[in-house]
Design goal:
alpha/beta; Nucleotidyltransferase, domain 5; 3 domains; 6-stranded mixed sheet; 23 strands
Length: about 475
Amino acid sequence: MEKIISVGIDIGTSTTQVIFSHITIENLASAYSVPQIDIIDKNVFYKSEIYFTPLISETEIDGQEIKKIIESEFKKANVAKKDISTGAVIITGETARKKNASLISEQLSDLAGDFVVATAGPDLESIIAGKGAGADKLSEKLNKLVINFDIGGGTTNIALFESGQVIDTACLDVGGRLIQLDEQNRLQYISKKIKKLAADLNLNLEIGKKVENSELEIIAEKMASVLSEVLKAGEKSSDYNYLITNHDLSKNYAINYVSFSGGVADYINNDHSGDLYKYNDLGIILAQKIRESSLYKDHQVYQAEETIRATVVGAGSHTTDISGSTITYTDNIFPLKNIPIIKITPEEEKLSKEELVKVIKKKLDWYDLDFEAQTVAVAMKGKENFNFAEITELAEAIIAGMEKIIKLDFPLIVILENDAAKVLGQTINRLSKEPKAVVSLDGIKVDNGDYIDIGKPLARGKVLPVIIKTLIFGK
């Protein structure tokens, strides 16, 4: 048994925070088996204050100020950089769209340990927030559909969970800091989309002009109405379609539970009789209008485990050795670091080849490769015994589904739980039109949201060391 220190750093549209935790890991395998190291306990021992994310401009993050904040929190937590074993830096929301987001993530990865560093697009952010809120665990415990609305400063990220697995996501440009005021309620900032929404509501909002409470209520009520449409059947309004960030839910679902996370959620679940403009934005008024809406009133609301802190508290790492006799890999491409996983469920594996291709492409889009090019690994359980036709069809589906990765000239990485990686990798190589770097591994169990490192071959190429990094969420 070993206890390590992990750190989670969340840089969002509105807020930045740092969380330190103790992660306890233990080897559950026998002395004569391949190590099976699991995370058996986590304990958050320090939470920073929540800072407004410092920006140089509307399009640029202030990296130096971010670094100062994080370094000061290390001191307050009495944690030295050398004490950190692992961690996660997650850049989310509007902040992930800033032009220097990738540079910031690189700078912060040097702060400590071997960090998972992710610039999260809307889909990945939805999943991270939903897991942080505990929606995945509730869906697994009750075997019900649970949808989480993570309402932040710039976006509302939506994730739907069934039996512990994410099955759909969506994102809307609805958030508490899309309108910002000064101490005299004069307008300091309004996003382009909300300015148009206000104009359509016959509201003339101009920078520097005082905004009336009634005007903000009208806008917040419209935002809440748009969020309510997520769970309504039938044709959506033009406002709804306008505020969609990337895509809607793929179909109408019979939702059992609704949960809310993000900064706005604190004021949805609790009555607020204090200053509506405590944060000089629309957030508290928006929360009140959501509480009055059909989204809240017509559904069974589950109290999220976390609201504004519904994010990672770090990353737990464990190492697995894999037998070289059942794997395929291309030389001279290792080590590979911090590769995100998309997991195909056993139910999805049973789909037709055409449907499986669609599923892989959709999950690949979680990582917004058009915005930030990176390799992604596809994982699945896989059958214990494939016949020739089955392995050929699976290889064809992976090649077609991972087309974007192949075109970016990244290694094609496939991970199976069952013992079929060698024949699958060989089949992918055989069917590929051009020679590509292929890594096909088995005996590895991973999930959506995990990251892996693959080290250089050991034991004369018979073993590839793999480190699995699981994002950790805490109460």
